[in-house]
Specification:
Elements lengths: L1 H21 L3 H21 L3 H26 L3 H6 L5 H24 L7 H6 L5 H12 L1 H23 L10 H5 L4 H5 L1
């Protein structure tokens, strides 16, 4: 039964990922992305990585996907223009797909050909008596501190870019003038 549920969530994740790519409306694409994150969280729960599943839901669904949704709604992206230019990015995306397949195959080869934790056995043995969250924090802030700081910088640049995109003034948007709305003088005196 658990195997069938695992396969169901795995297929749902793949179908929703295809929906993210092929959706014509950017808002629908972000909603498919939320479903991808939720399916990935269910898969992590099946793999007994509860903490990672909850962090995935809180960070990606609660923050990143909602930020994408707000940006899509604020920028008013034209769907026709996006669909016409989607095939222009096909060669560069093909290069990234080939690089991704190469990296995944290299990881799988190293896992089966060599000892994956070669050189890190002392690190693994020292974490046997502590909790999973302690191990995650210790590993993240010692061995991957540079990657953690770089991810923080990427998020900072994304936040500054989102603020910059929302601050430019459009000419076609009507602005609200509060003083004209609450003015109590008759309209005839305003026309003179």
């Amino acid at each position: 039964m658990l195997t069938l549920l695992f396969l169901f969530f795995k297929m749902a994740l793949i179908l929703n990922a295809v929906g993210v790519i092929l959706s014509k409306n950017p808002v629908h694409s972000v909603l498919f992305l939320v479903l991808v994150f939720l399916n990935a969280a269910f898969l992590l729960i099946f793999l007994e990585a509860d903490f990672m599943a909850l962090i995935l839901v809180v960070v990606y669904v609660g923050a990143i996907a909602i930020l994408f949704l707000f940006i899509c709604m604020m920028l008013n992206i034209k769907t026709e223009q996006f669909n016409k230019n989607i095939f222009a990015y096909l060669p560069i995306s093909g290069v990234f797909v080939i690089l991704l397949i190469f990296e995944v195959s290299l990881i799988i080869y190293n896992f089966f050909a060599h000892d994956l934790f070669m050189g890190h056995t002392s690190m693994l043995l020292s974490f046997t008596t502590v909790s999973n969250i302690f191990v995650l924090g210790e590993t993240l802030y010692t061995f991957y501190a540079l990657n953690f700081l770089l991810a923080g910088m990427v998020l900072l640049v994304a936040m500054v870019g989102a603020i910059f995109l929302t601050l430019h003034h459009r000419l076609d948007v009507r602005r609200q003038v509060i003083f004209e709305q609450i003015d109590r003088t008759p309209i005839l005196h305003k026309l003179k």
